[in-house]
Write a structure and sequence with these properties.
The structure holds two protein chains of two kinds.
Chain A lengths: L21 H5 L15 E7 L5 E7 L1 H5 L3 E6 H7 L20 E2 L5 E7 L2 H9 L2 E6 L6 H6 L14 E9 L2 H7 L2 E10 L11 E7 L4 E6 L7 H9 L6 E5 L14 H14 L3 E4 L2 H7 L5 E10 L5 E11 L10 H4 L13 E9 L14 H19 L3 H8 L8 E2 L5 E2 L4 H11 L2 H13 L3 E15 L10 H4 L12 E7 L5 E5 L8 H13 L6 E4 L2 E2 L16 H28 L6 E4 L2 E4 L2 E7 H10 L13 E6 L16 E15 L6 E11 L6 H20 L31 E4 L22 H13 L13 H13 L4
Parallel strand pairs in A: 1-12, 10-11, 14-15, 20-21, 28-29
Antiparallel strand pairs in A: 1-5, 2-4, 2-6, 3-5, 7-15, 8-13, 9-10, 9-12, 11-22, 13-14, 16-17, 18-27, 19-20, 19-26, 23-24, 24-25, 27-28
Chain B lengths: L2 E8 L2 E8 L4 H9 L17 E4 L2 E4 L12 E3 L12 H8 L9 H14 L5 H7 L11 H20 L1
Parallel strand pairs in B: 1-5
Antiparallel strand pairs in B: 1-2, 3-4, 3-5
Helix pairs in contact in B: 2-5
One FE2/S2 (inorganic) cluster (FES) binds next to loops of chain B.
Chain lengths: 816, 162
C-alpha cells in the first residue's frame, strides 16, 4: 500500500508514494481539453476521404453552407492559401498540409471542415457536402511501393514512393561475413501497424486574434515542442504569434498525441476563416482511421556467426511504411534507435539499408516504444534463428553475446553511449524468476502429450531522452556538412522551483504528463531536496508557451521525464536550497556548508536543535528582501534548463548518441496454443527492468504493466488492417481489438538497479518499457511452440485465425 | 429540430433542461448539466468510460438519448465522494494505483461500484469480468483489479465493524 502525503520523511524518492493527482481524477475534477470553456465556442466536424487514392475534381459545399447553424466550410484550397506545407525531416519534396489539397492519399484524410454552432449540426452539414473523386490505383505494401515498377506513385513531383533512403555502415560487415562460420537469415519479417489508442482522442481548440495576427491553441499535445516552430512555419507566423496551451490533464498519449499538430493547425485555420473560437474533439472512428499509429515495417535480417554462437555482425534491410505523407517526425522510426541498433549485444559490425516509404495507408509517428519494437522484433527473431541454426538454447546464445557488466559506459558501433547496466545479471534474474529449466521440462511433457507449448526469451536496451540530433542521420554526412547548416544537438528540459512567502514550494515542469504521475514524482524529488513533506510541494504541469521557460525539446516523449525532467527539477531545487542555506547562515551564526534541511527546517549539522523554520527564511526573502545578506536577490526561486554533454550531432560516420540514458529489459514468456482454435494463451510472463534509481516503484510498476499490455496487444490482437483496395477494416473498437481485463496476462516484474552516472538522481526513463520487448518475446514463444511442426513465425499479430491457418497449411503438407 | 423538456435527478439534485431527441445523454450530462467527470472515449458503447447509474443500474450514457433519461435519477462519478471524503472504492484506487491518466476512471469506478453493490466478495475473475466492458489503455488493468479487490475488503471490514 502506498504512503500518505502528510508525513515527513528523510527520503521520499524510492518510496511508493500515493499519487497527488489522483483525488481530483477520482472525483471527476480533472481538466481535459473538452472540459475547457471559451466564450462563443463553435465546433468543427471533419469530412474525410472514403478513397485510398483519388484525385479531387471538385467540392460542392453549398448545401452545407446553407444549413442553419453552420458558420463556415473550410476546404483544401483555403488551407493551401492560408498555410504552407509542413516542414519535413527529409529532402523529398512532399507537400503535406493539414487537409487534402487536390488529391487524397489515404482513407480518412481530411477533405473539408465544417464549423457550426454545435457538433451535431456540423456533422449534419458534412453529410451535405458533395465531393467529386476520381479514384486511382493504390499501393499498401512498403516493399512493393519501392521495388515494384508497376506500383502507383503517390507524389508525382517526388518521382518515387521513397521519402528517405540511407545505408548506414558501422565497423566492417564484409570482414565479419568473411570470418563467419555461418550466415543466418530471418527471411521476410512483417511488423504490423497498430497504435496505443488513448481513451481520450485528439482534441484542439483555436482562437485567432486579428489585431495581433496571432493564434492561441489549446490541445492535448504532449510534445516534443519542436512542433511549435514546425506549425509556425506552416501557418506563416513568427513564434511569438502562436501560443500553445496544454491543460493539466491529458487522457493518455503514448506518443500518439505528438501527431495532433496537423489538426491544431487545421483548427487554427478554421478559427481564422470564421473569426470564431473553434473546437474539434476527435471521435473514435476518426482516431482509428486517421490519427496516427506506429510504423509497420518489412525487414530482412542476416547475421554472421561463429560456430560457438558468437555474433560477428548483422545486416538489415528495412522498409518502413509511413503512409500517405511522411509527417514529421518520421522517418524517425528508422533513426530513433540509432545508438542502440545493436541492442544488448557486443557485435561491432552492422549495416542498415533502410527506406522510409509512402503508401496509401494512414500516417505514422511516435507510438510508445517508437522504433524499438520494430527493431527488436527483427533482432530478437534473428538471435533465435542463430540459436536454431546452431542447435543452441535461445537463452545461452543471448548470454554469450551480451555486453559484459564491466564494459559500462559502453560505446556502441553506431555511437550510443550506454550509461550503466548489468545485462547478464538481468537476464539470469528473468530466467530464475521464470524457473526456466523447469519451464523447459514442462514444455517437454506438454509436447509429449500433444500440446503446443513454447518459451520465448527477449532482451532490449531501452533508450530514454532522445538527443534530437538523431533525426539528422536521415541526411547524409555531406548534407549535414553543407554551409549554413545548423547542427541539431540536445535533449534539454526545464525545471522551476520557488518557495512562496509561507514556506511552501511550487514547481513547474514542461513534461506535459498524460498519466505518468509527474506531479507526484516531482513532489517527491523536491520534498527530498528541500526537506519538506510532499504535501507542501505543489506541482503545476499545465503548460503555456507564453509563460513557461521551455525549449523545443520539451514535452513528454522518449521516456524523458525520469532522465531529464527529474534532473532539471532536482537541480533547480538544489539551487533554491543553496540560497535558503545562505540566508539561514547568519541567523544561526554558522557557514552555509554547516547547514542542512529537514522537516521544513534548516538545522546545524551535528546539532539539530539549532534550527530555523524554512517559513522564516521565506519570510525574510519575500517580506524583508532589503535586509537579505549581501549579493542575494529577493525571493527564493531557481530555474534549471538541464542538458546532457553527450547529446552531440552525428559524426561523419553517422555515429550518434541518440539517447542519453539506456535502461535494460529481459523477458521470458511461456505460451500455450490451442490447436483447435489457434488461440495463444500466455501462461507465464516475466519481465526484468533496469531503470536505474526508481523514483516511485509503484508508478514504475504501473508503467511496466501498461507498456507490456500494449506490446502484447500488438503481438496478438490489434491491427490497423486494410483490404486490398486500401479500405480500412478496423474503424471501431469492435474491429480494432484492444485487450480487456480478461485478456491481460499475469505479469511478474523484477528489477535490477544500475543508477545512471549521467542523471542527477541516477534514474532513467521507464515509460516505454515492455512495449518494445513484448512483441519480440511473444513472437519468439509462439515460434518455439510451432517449431516441432516446422512453422516459422515471421509476422504479427498472431491472431487465432492466422495461427490456425498456419496449422492447417502445415497439416495439408502432411507435417502436422 | 424540435426540443424536448427533460427533468431528472442528478446526484440527488433536480435538473430541468431541453434537448433535441437525438442528443446523447453523455453530451447532455457534460454540456447541459455541466458535469464533466463523465468521459466519452468511443461513442459506440465499447470503452465504458461514459458509464453512469440510471436508477441504480450502470448504463452507457453514449448509447442513451437524453430524452430517455427523463424522469430518472442519475448518479455520476461526482456522486461517489461524500462530504469531501473519498469513498472506500476511490480510496482503494488511490492506494493501489488503480489509475494513470484518469480518463477511463469514472466509468471503471461506476462499474466497480455496481459490482460491489451486488457482490460483496468477488473473486479476481469476477472482478475482471465485471470490468471487461471497460477499456483502460494505461494500466494494463492489473492495479485496477487489485484496487477493486481491496475495496471489497475495506467494505467488508466496515460492514463487520458496524
Ligand atoms: S463512450 Fe460510451 S462506451 Fe465508450
Ligand atoms: S488510466 Fe488512462 S485509460 Fe485508464
Amino acid at each position: 500500500m502506498a504512503a500518505t502525503t502528510t508525513e515527513t520523511a528523510q527520503r521520499w524518492v524510492g518510496r511508493s508514494v500515493k499519487r497527488v493527482e489522483d483525488p481530483r481524477l477520482l472525483t471527476g475534477r480533472g481538466t481535459y481539453v473538452d472540459d475547457l470553456h471559451l466564450a462563443n465556442l463553435h465546433q468543427a466536424a471533419i469530412l474525410r476521404s472514403p478513397h485510398a487514392h483519388a484525385r479531387i475534381r471538385g467540392i460542392d459545399a453549398s448545401k452545407a453552407e446553407a444549413l442553419p447553424g453552420v458558420v463556415g466550410v473550410v476546404r483544401g484550397k483555403q488551407v493551401a492559401e492560408l498555410s504552407e506545407a509542413f516542414p519535413l525531416g527529409v529532402a523529398a519534396p512532399v507537400r503535406y498540409y493539414s487537409c487534402a489539397v487536390g488529391k487524397v492519399l489515404f482513407v480518412g484524410e481530411p477533405v473539408a471542415v465544417v464549423v457550426a454552432k454545435d457538433r451535431y449540426t456540423a456533422e449534419d452539414a458534412c453529410d451535405l457536402i458533395e465531393v467529386d473523386y476520381e479514384p486511382l490505383p493504390c499501393v499498401l505494401d512498403p516493399e512493393k511501393a519501392v521495388e515494384d515498377p508497376t506500383a502507383p506513385i503517390l507524389h508525382e513531383n517526388v518521382g518515387s514512393n521513397v521519402a528517405n533512403h540511407r545505408v548506414l555502415h558501422y565497423g566492417d560487415t564484409d570482414k565479419a561475413w568473411a570470418e563467419a562460420d555461418l550466415i543466418v537469415k530471418t527471411g521476410r519479417l512483417v511488423f504490423p501497424k497498430y497504435g496505443s489508442t488513448p481513451v481520450e482522442g485528439y482534441a484542439a481548440a483555436a482562437q485567432w486574434d486579428p489585431l495581433n495576427q496571432a493564434y492561441t491553441i489549446w490541445s492535448n499535445f504532449h510534445g516534443p515542442f519542436i512542433m511549435h516552430p514546425v506549425m509556425c512555419r506552416a501557418l506563416g507566423v513568427t513564434e511569438d504569434r502562436l501560443r500553445f496551451i496544454v491543460p493539466p490533464d491529458i487522457g493518455g498519449g503514448f506518443g500518439i498525441k505528438s501527431s495532433v499538430y496537423p489538426y491544431m493547425t487545421l483548427m487554427a485555420i478554421c478559427a481564422r476563416v470564421t473569426g470564431l473560437p473553434v473546437k474539434w474533439i476527435e471521435d473514435r472512428r476518426e482516431h482509428l482511421v486517421a490519427s496516427s499509429s506506429g510504423t509497420d515495417r518489412v525487414s530482412y535480417l542476416e547475421a554472421a556467426v561463429k560456430k560457438d554462437g558468437t555474433i560477428l555482425g548483422v545486416r538489415m534491410k528495412i522498409y518502413d511504411n509511413c503512409g500517405g505523407y511522411i509527417r514529421t517526425p518520421e522517418p524517425a522510426c528508422l533513426y530513433r534507435a540509432t545508438g542502440n541498433y545493436s541492442g544488448a549485444y557486443l557485435f561491432q559490425n552492422l549495416k542498415m539499408d533502410q527506406y522510409a516509404v509512402m503508401t496509401n495507408k494512414s500516417l505514422t509517428g511516435p507510438n510508445r516504444g517508437y522504433g524499438c519494437q520494430q527493431l527488436y522484433f527483427g533482432l530478437e527473431r534473428l538471435v533465435d534463428q542463430v540459436a536454431y541454426d546452431l542447435g543452441m538454447d535461445v537463452a545461452e546464445v543471448r548470454l554469450k553475446n551480451l555486453i559484459p557488466a564491466g564494459a559500462f559506459p559502453y560505446t556502441t558501433p553506431s555511437g550510443g553511449i550506454y550509461d550503466s547496466g548489468d545485462y547478464s545479471k538481468s537476464v539470469r534474474l528473468a530466467l530464475d524468476m521464470a524457473k526456466y529449466d523447469e519451464l523447459r521440462k514442462r514444455q517437454t511433457a506438454a509436447r509429449a502429450s500433444g500440446k503446443l507449448y513454447g518459451i520465448g526469451v527477449a532482451t532490449a536496451v531501452d533508450p530514454s531522452v532522445t538527443n534530437m540530433a538523431y533525426i539528422t542521420v536521415a541526411w547524409t554526412p555531406e548534407e549535414r556538412a553543407r554551409k549554413g547548416y545548423l547542427p541539431k544537438a540536445g535533449s534539454s528540459e526545464t525545471g522551476s522551483v520557488r518557495i512562496d512567502p509561507s514556506g511552501k514550494a511550487f514547481c513547474m515542469v514542461n513534461t506535459t504528463p498524460e498519466g505518468q504521475g509527474h506531479e507526484t514524482a516531482v513532489s517527491q524529488i523536491v520534498a527530498d531536496e528541500l526537506g519538506m513533506a510532499i504535501g507542501d510541494v505543489h506541482v503545476i504541469t499545465e503548460f503555456d508557451t507564453f509563460t513557461r521557460t521551455w525549449s523545443i525539446t520539451s514535452g513528454s516523449y522518449s521516456s524523458r521525464f525520469a532522465s531529464v525532467g527529474a534532473s532539471a527539477v532536482a537541480t533547480a531545487a538544489r539551487r533554491v536550497k543553496e540560497k535558503v542555506l545562505k540566508i539561514a547562515a547568519p541567523m544561526l551564526e554558522v557557514n552555509p556548508q554547516d547547514l542542512d534541511v529537514r522537516d521544513s527546517k534548516v538545522f546545524v549539522k551535528g546539532s539539530p536543535e539549532r534550527s530555523v523554520p524554512i517559513r522564516r527564511i521565506a519570510g525574510q526573502a519575500h517580506w524583508s528582501a532589503t535586509l537579505l545578506p549581501e549579493g542575494l536577490e529577493p525571493g527564493l526561486q531557481a530555474t534549471c534548463m538541464f542538458n546532457f554533454p553527450n547529446a552531440k550531432p552525428p559524426d561523419e560516420k553517422d555515429r550518434v548518441d541518440s539517447s542519453q540514458t539506456y535502461g535494460f529489459i529481459a523477458e521470458v514468456m511461456g505460451v500455450e496454443i490451442d490447436p483447435a482454435t489457434g488461440e495463444v494463451r500466455i501462461d507465464k510472463y516475466v519481465t526484468v527492468h533496469d531503470v536505474g534509481t526508481l523514483i516511485n516503484p509503484m508508478i514504475v510498476e504501473g508503467q511496466v504493466m501498461g507498456g507490456a499490455l500494449h506490446g502484447v496487444a500488438g503481438a496478438l490482437y490489434e491491427e490497423m488492417a486494410y483490404d486490398e483496395s486500401g479500405q480500412f477494416l478496423a474503424a471501431s473498437f469492435m474491429d480494432y481489438l484492444c485487450p480487456t481485463a480478461m485478456e491481460a496476462p499475469p505479469i511478474e516484474i523484477g528489477h535490477v538497479v544500475s543508477p545512471s552516472p549521467f542523471t542527477v538522481l541516477g534514474s532513467k526513463g521507464c515509460g516505454e518499457s515492455s512495449t518494445m520487448t513484448a512483441p519480440a518475446v511473444v513472437a519468439n514463444a509462439i515460434a518455439d511452440a510451432l517449431r516441432p511442426l516446422n512453422i516459422a513465425v515471421r509476422e504479427l499479430p498472431m491472431t487465432p485465425n492466422k495461427v490456425w491457418k498456419l496449422l492447417q497449411e502445415q497439416k495439408a503438407k502432411g507435417v502436422a | 429540430m424540435s426540443m424536448h423538456s427533460i427533468s431528472l435527478t442528478i446526484n440527488g439534485k433536480k435538473f430541468e433542461g431541453q434537448a433535441e431527441a437525438r442528443k446523447l445523454l453523455s453530451d447532455f450530462i457534460r454540456e447541459d448539466i455541466g458535469l464533466t467527470g463523465t468521459h466519452v472515449g468511443c461513442e459506440h458503447g465499447m470503452c465504458g468510460a461514459c458509464t453512469v447509474f440510471i436508477d441504480g443500474v450502470g448504463v452507457r450514457s453514449c448509447l442513451t438519448f437524453a430524452v430517455q433519461a427523463d424522469g430518472t435519477s442519475i448518479e455520476t462519478v461526482e456522486s461517489l465522494a461524500k462530504d469531501g471524503k473519498l469513498s472506500p472504492l476511490q480510496e482503494a484506487f488511490w492506494e493501489n494505483h488503480g489509475l494513470q491518466c484518469g480518463f477511463c476512471t469514472p466509468g471503471m469506478l461506476i462499474c466497480a461500484e455496481e459490482l460491489l453493490r451486488e457482490n460483496k466478495n468477488p473473486t479476481e475473475q469476477e472482478v475482471r469480468l465485471a470490468i471487461s466492458g471497460n477499456l483502460c489503455r494505461c494500466t494494463g488493468y492489473h492495479h485496477i483489479v487489485l484496487s477493486i479487490l481491496a475495496a471489497a475488503k475495506k467494505l467488508q471490514g466496515a460492514a463487520q465493524a458496524a
